Automatic annotation (TrEMBL):
Keywords: Membrane, Transmembrane, Transmembrane helix. The keyword Amino-acid biosynthesis does not apply. InterPro entries: Na+/solute_symporter_sf (IPR038770). This is Bile acid:Na+ symporter, BASS family. The keyword Magnesium does not apply. The chain crosses the membrane at residues 12-31, 37-55, 67-88, 94-116, 128-147, 159-181, 193-217, 223-248. Gene3D superfamilies: 1.20.1530.20.
Length: 310
């Protein structure tokens, strides 16, 4: 009965995300209470994602073709951005660091679902999600080393090591529980788990929006600036990557990779970096959730171009 109820929730996954966004905006007190639990919530979502995918499906797909995409998205882009900022002597303030961390982050766990909602094939998004999350501790290390806010080499190694432990532990536990408890999940089980994941995503969104309410009270124009940057980075990356792949004749990959390019799980870094580093970024991270969860609504027509060209 509970599984069926969660399956019904899955049908309204987009509505759950929108409700989470609204709750984070109108209930700042609740968001503030949940804020300290963000690392645990992110770890829980990783566990559910690993449980949903399963070890066999995660390792059974051809990940070799996704390896290059992960290196471009999570290593080349952020390292290139940092080197460009340093070369132009623009500094690495909160805004620049927020953008770099977005570029260094793997795909959000909802990327395959977003791909489905805009009419694309989620298989490629799933492959990049699995491989990108697994390689994150490795790809993040050079980025951490280039960011002076992280600290010295010992701090960098500690942050990367902690990130490795969290990601691998959550994913390994999810795979193990799936293998022992539900090796054949079935359509009904997947639907129920999708509903549960939608709820967890909505709860995480509430917690991530904890800085939005106070920021709006203190400086509405400042919040509007951060929100504008979040939309520009998210939608800009999606449009740019989608357009590039379309020009290269990779129309079938353009939708899932466009989704992945802009929708990054930057909240993962909250479990690894020190609070004094992430505190100034919470406003941006909160704002970033808005274009992320509005992607299936606002960019559906844009991505429809690839479907029409097939």
């Amino acid at each position: 009965m509970i599984i069926d109820l969660l399956g019904r929730v899955a049908r309204y996954g987009r509505l759950c995300l929108v409700l989470g966004l609204l709750a984070g905006l109108i209930l700042p007190g609740v968001a503030a209470v949940m804020r300290p639990w963000i690392p645990e919530l992110v770890s829980l979502l990783l566990f559910f994602t690993a449980f949903r995918v399963g070890y066999r499906d995660a390792t059974g797909v051809d990940l070799s073709k996704a390896f290059g995409q992960v290196l471009i998205l999570q290593l080349a882009l952020p390292v290139g951005a940092v080197l460009m900022l340093i070369g132009l002597d623009l500094g690495l303030g909160p805004l620049a660091m927020a953008v770099v961390l977005v570029l260094a982050a793997p795909s959000v766990t909802g990327a395959p679902n977003f791909t489905i909602l805009v009419g694309g094939d989620p298989a490629r998004a799933l492959r990049v999600l699995v491989l990108g999350t697994a390689l994150l501790p490795v790809t993040a290390l050079p980025v951490f080393w280039l960011l002076p806010q992280i600290g010295d080499l010992q701090d960098v190694l500690w942050a990367a090591g902690r990130l490795t432990l969290v990601v691998l532990s959550a994913v390994a536990l999810g795979f193990a529980v799936r293998q022992l408890a539900a090796p054949d999940l079935g359509d009904r089980g997947r639907a129920g788990l999708d509903g549960l994941t939608s709820i967890v995503l909505a709860v995480i969104v509430v917690a991530l929006m904890s800085a939005i309410g106070p920021a709006f009270s203190e400086s509405p124009l400042g919040l509007f600036w951060w929100l504008s940057v979040a939309f520009a980075v998210n939608f800009g990356m999606q449009v740019a990557y989608f357009t590039l792949l379309t020009v290269l004749g990779q129309d079938r990959n353009a939708i899932p990779m466009g989704i992945v390019a802009g929708n990054r799980n930057v909240a993962l870094f909250l479990v690894a970096l020190p609070p004094e580093t992430t505190e100034p970024l919470l406003i941006f991270i909160g704002c970033y959730q808005i274009p992320m969860y509005l992607t299936p609504i606002l960019l559906r027509r844009f991505y429809a171009r690839a479907l029409c060209s097939d």
